[in-house]
Amino acid sequence: TTTSRCCLWSCPSCRVELRDLFAAETEETMIKHGPLTAWEAVTIVPGFGRTKIGALPVGGLRAFKAKVQRKIRNVASEAIGYFCIDVSWERRLNGEEHWQWHVHGTMRGLNETMRKKIRASFKLGERSADKPVQFKRITRDDTGGLMVAGLLEYAAKANFLLREPRNEHCSSSRTSGPQ
Q1: Quick check: 75 pLDDT over 70?
Q2: Contact 75, 121 (CB under 8 A)
Q3: What was the pLDDT predicted at 178?
């Protein structure tokens, strides 16, 4: 349990404690399902998560969550995962700005067929990111420890970033934050 007074993610003091608590409890739960090396980091940036600045996704966050879950369960029902909803502030080269709602998390039990189907479920469209789905194996750091805590802390971060393209020939972006 947390020792903070208000326990709100919007509180600068409490959000760090809540993030750390989420990371610790999620890692503990992941261990119950087998070795941490069987898990992988997942980021999904769906086109339907793109909104005007200040707006929630269509139907709100619960509808956004349900749509992401449905798309994953339809193609990888045997896999398990833990996700956090995140938002970034995007600025295009033409000056257009929007919010991009997306998820970060971990999944276990995926095979290559499931990964391909998940990617296809969130396929590119005019409103989606260059790489709407990314998978990355959980690896060891320089000391031999597994890089799980940092991954989970990033997934549950309480600030969001401004993402800007570097130039018209580069699809990657630079970030600044917190915003």
Answers
A1: yes
A2: yes
A3: 41
Burial of 62 per CB tally in 10 Å (0-12, 13-18, 19+): exposed
Q: In this prediction, what percent of the chain has a pLDDT beyond 70?
A: 79
User: For the residues 28-39, what does the mean pLDDT come to?
Assistant: 86
Contacts of 25 (CB under 8 A, 6+ apart): none
User: CA nearest 100: which of 90, 115, 92, 113?
Assistant: 90
> CA dihedral in degrees (69, 11, 164, 175; nearest 10)?
-100
Rounded Cα gap, residues 35 and 33, in angstroms? 7
In the block, tokens 């707006």 appear at 55
pLDDT at residue 68 in the model: 96
DSSP 8-state class, residue 6 = S
Give the pLDDT of residue 102: 92
> Buried b vs exposed e over 96-118: b needs ≥16 C-beta within 10 Å?
eebbbbbbbbbbbbbeeebbebb
Write down the pTM of the prediction: 0.80
Paired tokens of 87: 């938002």
Burial of 127 (0-12, 13-18, 19+ CB in 10 A): middle
